[in-house]
Amino acid sequence: MPATLLTTTTTTTLDHARSDGENLWVPLAELKSAIGWELKPEGACRGDQCVPIPPGREREYFSEGRFNVAALARYIGQPVVHDAESETWAIGEAAGARNSALRSLEAPDFTLPDLTGRMHSLSDYRGRKVFLASWASW
């Protein structure tokens, strides 16, 4: 069964991934297209961010042509949750990054429709005062 990987920015179906307990193994050939990370001599990299693989712990990250995405996430402080029944994995934002965002007092960007269906993003109003009203029935 394919695995579904949820991150803070994407939802990806991993057709050739393999779950093994709390480990999510993605084929090396699909690593970049599936999750945006690639392996370089300096470690696992996404853009300018590179995470060296801890010496002596390579088996936690590499096995049979696959890379353990869940181990990498845990290593860099991202929470990982797995639902075995649906083969759904969720990787959250690292606590340090979230703490930094909270300290900035800048609201995260989001996009919602108005009553006519026209979409509005909070970032469209940066530098201007905005009044947000929300309501929930529960």
Key features of this structure:
single chain, 138 residues, alpha+beta, four-stranded mixed beta sheet, four-stranded antiparallel beta sheet
Give the helix/strand layout.
Layout: E1 3-6, E2 11-14, E3 18-20, E4 23-27, H1 31-35, E5 38-40, E6 43-46, E7 49-51, H2 58-61, E8 62-63, E9 66-68, H3 69-75, E10 80-83, E11 88-91, H4 95-104, E12 111-113, E13 119-121
Parallel strand pairs: 1-11
Antiparallel strand pairs: 1-2, 3-4, 4-9, 5-6, 6-7, 8-9, 10-11, 12-13
- Strands of the biggest beta sheet: in what spatial order? 2-1-11-10
Low-pLDDT sequence parts: none
SS summary, helix count = 4
Give the amount of beta strand, in percent. 25-35%
Largest sheet: 4 strands, mixed
Q: Give the beta-strand count.
A: 13
End-to-end distance:
36 Å
Fraction of residues in helix = 10-25%
Q: What structural category characterises the helix and strand content?
A: alpha+beta
Would you list the SSEs in sequence order as H and E?
EEEEHEEEHEEHEEHEE
Overall body shape: elongated
Spatial extent as radius of gyration: 19 Å
Mean pLDDT: 89
Structure description:
It is a single chain. By secondary structure, the protein is an alpha+beta fold. 19% of the residues lie in helices and 33% in strands. The protein has a domain at 3-96. It has helices spanning 31-35, 58-61, 69-75, 95-104; strands spanning 3-6, 11-14, 18-20, 23-27, 38-40, 43-46, 49-51, 62-63, 66-68, 80-83, 88-91, 111-113, 119-121. The strands form 4 sheets. A 4-stranded mixed β-sheet has the order 2-1-11-10. The chain starts with a strand and ends in a 17-residue tail after the last strand.
